[in-house]
Specification:
This protein has helices spanning 25-33, 81-93, 113-122, 124-127, 144-150, 152-159, 174-187, 221-225, 275-289, 345-356, and strands at 12-19, 41-45, 57-62, 65-68, 73-76, 102-106, 130-140, 163-167, 192-196, 262-269, 293-300, 309-314, 317-318, 322-323, 334-341. It is an alpha/beta fold.
């Protein structure tokens, strides 16, 4: 029996729900599971005992898989996420669990999202059936500032997020919330900021935000990339025939010395790019600074190709490229968004210039 994930796209979108300890992930998850909009969702959590959703459990489907009252599927991933996703896929194909069209993976409060992102991209068994849709990070309005100041895990969870949900916002003053929102925007300007009180939020704001969605033929690349939100590098006067090194000013947030470890920026290229040269450049950057390269998203005007390609990189892993049916807007220039840690734009832009033989716009 074929996989029923989507009549258009066979890949099932996966959303990571992360956030530091006590940031409200559990409350948010509970409220989401009560929404009819999530009745066709599979939820993977670390251990049932850590997330109090027992009041929603109705029956065990098999071993670590449980069917919830609203039709969602809940599964423990404490052992092996790859095995859990594989089991869910085959049980859905055989009709042994209710149909689901998306997966939500809730991480522990101290988790680094990068290894899970890597698994979704790199492991053939998973990558052939699932695709990373987005990363939702919760942050506590009461303790969030302190956590960002003292816990690098919290900062990284914010830096790689596509959606940031500020919880317990009703317990803080407007000025404090404004300061927190400003800081979050400095760390990750491309993420959409949302607020939730007692986990109350519209699920549509959190899910189906990635490139590939069920029942959608044309990926919403512009919203996914959100290149306009990132600070562009200043124009350079490099010669495309003889590229040379320059001092590119490092763009950094100013809110906290801890935040300065994370840098985000966007580079644009006017001329089409040779795809193999771009991959070679990125592989060189990965080999030398892969641990500092958190995430790259981009849309690329590839030389001698009429359709643009999407670029997605997580640390040491380059997501398989995909051609888009058409450009999402009138801007046909290549746009690459970088999210890095302890790494300024200088090294990255110089490496790209050497390989691509052109400077960013």
């Amino acid at each position: 029996m074929s996989d029923p994930a989507s009549p258009i796209n066979p890949l099932t979108p996966v959303t990571l729900l992360t956030g530091f300890l006590g940031s409200g992930k559990t409350t948010l998850l509970n409220r989401l599971l009560q929404s009819p909009a999530l009745q066709d969702t599979a939820v993977l959590i670390n251990e049932f005992g850590e997330v109090p959703i027992d009041h929603l459990l109705v029956r065990a489907a098999s071993d670590n898989i449980t069917v919830l009252a609203n039709g969602c599927i809940c599964c423990s991933v404490a052992g092996d996420m790859v095995n859990a996703l594989r089991d869910l896929y085959f049980k859905r194909s055989k009709g042994e669990v209710p149909h689901f069209r998306r997966v939500v993976i809730e991480t522990t409060g101290l988790a680094d999202p990068a290894p899970i992102m890597h698994t979704l991209i790199e492991m053939p068994l998973v990558a052939a059936r699932y695709t990373l849709s987005g990363i939702v990070t919760t942050i506590d309005a009461v303790h969030g500032e302190q956590q960002l100041n003292t816990h690098p895990e919290s900062l990284k969870q914010i830096a790689v997020a596509d959606r940031i949900v500020i919880t317990k916002s009703d317990l803080q003053s407007a000025d404090t919330l404004t300061a927190l929102r400003t800081r979050l925007c400095n760390i990750n300007p491309g993420a959409v900021l949302l607020q939730a009180v007692s986990g109350d939020i519209n699920p549509e704001f959190l899910f189906d935000t990635g490139l590939y969605q069920a029942d959608v033929k044309m990926p919403d690349v512009r919203k996914w990339l959100n290149a306009e939100a990132y600070r562009p590098l200043p124009s350079t006067n490099h010669s495309t025939a003889a590229p040379h090194r320059t001092n590119h000013p490092t763009i950094r947030p100013t809110q906290s010395r801890h935040d300065e470890r994370f840098t985000t920026f966007c580079v644009r290229y006017v001329q089409p790019i040779d795809w193999d040269e771009l991959v070679n450049a990125l592989e060189m950057i990965q080999a030398m600074r892969g641990d500092h390269l958190l995430r790259i998203k981009g849309i690329v005007n590839v030389a001698n190709e009429s359709q643009p390609r999407v670029l997605h990189v997580v640390q040491h892993t380059i997501y398989p490229s995909a051609k888009l049916p058409a450009w999402p807007d009138e801007d046909h220039h290549s746009r690459l968004v970088f999210i890095v840690k302890d790494l300024g734009p200088d090294f990255i832009v110089d490496a790209l210039t050497d390989f691509l033989r052109q400077s960013p716009e």
